[in-house]
């Protein structure tokens, strides 16, 4: 009996050891099977740390972020229409001097050309005559007031002299306004009054600093106010007009930033911003126009307004990236 109990105890002990051994070995066997399956799976690529670093692979946690995506649009570069001036003369005359040529950089107020105008000479002569008449009429009016106060003349005579004075004063003011219309400034009129010297020559000046891109006059030519003599463009800022397909209109918004590349400077990117998106769809091309304003860096040669680039890159402020393909 005692021997049977000992045998039973040994059997229970052996079973417990077997269960423990099976439990301890099962996870290892399962992991080994998983590794074997992963190694044989053709869809899984295993990289060591050095390979991951060499490939530039970065692992980050999943998070909500703004999604950027590229869109390709055609477009062209043109001058800022608010920085273009077609310059003419306010008065007819003959060209007696040309100071600016195509390609010249001019400053605001710089002289582009000079003309001689008989009409300006006549206007200045009439102004000086009316100025003299006004002085005489003013003196007569002041004298009439004193005589009226002393009862030396009647009211009717005083009113007649007052009317003469007011009439001459109105004519003088009209002559002065005509000089303003012809292009004279206050300092020119003050010089005319002080010197009493008629100057029929008029300088045509640049309204702002820029580049002369058009000239339409020659020495000795007779010009009219309707003649366009010069075209000046301020190239410090340009426009890029992109053609946006109808399906992508909702992705283009004002305020988006842009990087423009042109064939003249293939390694450069010019920063800009979308300032206008048209509401009209071209029925022929099914596109709308988007305008991007681009600063023209002074250290680079100015891009001609007719120059078309070959590639651009628009980065949207709302998360989209517009990448227009500029065409030549």
TrEMBL record:
| Residue span, CusB-like beta-barrel domain | 237-298
Q: Which SUPFAM superfamilies match?
A: HlyD-like secretion proteins
Q: Name one GO biological process term.
A: plasma membrane copper ion transport
Q: Name one Pfam family in it.
A: Beta-barrel_RND_2
The GO terms describing molecular function are:
transition metal ion binding; transmembrane transporter activity
What UniProt keywords are attached to this protein's entry? Transport
Domain CzcB-like barrel-sandwich hybrid: where? 83-234
Which residue stretches belong to region Disordered? 291-328
Q: What are its GO cellular component terms?
A: membrane; outer membrane-bounded periplasmic space
Q: Which family would the database say this protein is a member of? A: Belongs to the membrane fusion protein (MFP) (TC 8.A.1) family.
Q: Which PANTHER family match?
A: CATION EFFLUX SYSTEM PROTEIN CUSB (PTHR30097:SF15)
- The protein here is known as Uncharacterized protein
